Amino acid sequence: MALVDEMATVLSNQNVGPRLYIMVLRCPQIAEQVMPGQFVHVQLTGFENHILRRPISVFDVNREEGTITLVYQVVGVGTEWMTTVAEGAHLDLIGAIGQGWTVPEAGQRVLIVGGGVGSAPLFILSKMARQAGAQVDIILAAATKDALVTLPYYTEAHGGEPVCATDDGTYGYAGFATEPAKKLLAETTYDRVYVCGPEPLMHIIANLAAEAHVPCELSMEKRMACGVGACLSCIVETVDGRKRSCVDGPVFPAEKVVW
């Protein structure tokens, strides 16, 4: 589908964890077409000193209500500014952008691994996989319990709590997501693995999947300028040459990525 430039209405913008926010926006045209793994490019209205948009993955979508939900982490002046956007404000969005995840089929079993805010781009996939009749195992990881902000959404959507891991041991497994992933891949036959999070985490999970002979997809979320493939600022090195994260990805087969 063609990209849509739509003025969205902010319905809520809440602080849900340490420097973590969830924003709900009404944008019916984008909501109608967004697929799991895609993102929107957000213009910082009234913030003219920073002309570049901010790419934010779509966490959830409600097509009937015409809304999308974003989970974002404050990492710089742009996302810091986003925390000040009030209910009823309008934001200019371009979307939905990018190549997303391969939705599994009925009867397949898949493993989803989300590290930090990397759990956000995987949520729609997890719901669509379950709706398609696939069996879905989920691992969510974060630095600390308070940063597991997507956990209640996954628990409600899947009728049970995912496996959790925290760096400081405040919730679930004490350590990184790599250990429970290694255990599950050794004990279970999977048809596909999906992972999004810090690159070191994705690299390790990709290697574990390769050792288990399971196809793996990962989301290479790079810094972006234009977001539509023109500026070449978000290059990912692959075995097929240099690819643009924004439009050739952000989701890539793990075996294609050159680390």
Tally the beta strands. Answer: 15
- Find the structural class using helix and strand composition: alpha/beta
Q: Provide the residue-averaged pLDDT.
A: 94
The biggest sheet amounts to: 7 strands, mixed
Q: How many individual helices?
A: 6
The low-confidence runs, each spanning 5 or more residues with pLDDT under 50, are: none
Order of helices and strands: EEHEEEHEEHEHEEHEHEEEE
Q: Compute the CA-based radius of gyration.
A: 18 Å
Strand % is 25-35%
Shape: globular
Distance between the termini: 31 Å
The strands making up the biggest β-sheet line up spatially as: 10-9-8-7-11-12-15
- Helix share bin: 10-25%
Structural account:
This protein has 6 helices and 15 strands. It has helices at residues 28-33, 77-82, 123-131, 151-158, 178-187, 199-211, and strands at residues 4-17, 20-26, 39-42, 54-62, 67-73, 90-97, 109-115, 135-142, 163-166, 173-174, 192-196, 216-219, 235-238, 241-244, 251-253. Strands 10-9-8-7-11-12-15 form a 7-stranded mixed sheet, sandwiched between helices. Strands 1-2-5-4-3-6 form a 6-stranded antiparallel beta barrel. A two-stranded antiparallel sheet has the order 13-14. The radius of gyration is 18 Å and the shape is globular. It starts with a strand and ends in a 6-residue tail after the last strand. The model has no long low-confidence stretch (mean pLDDT 94).
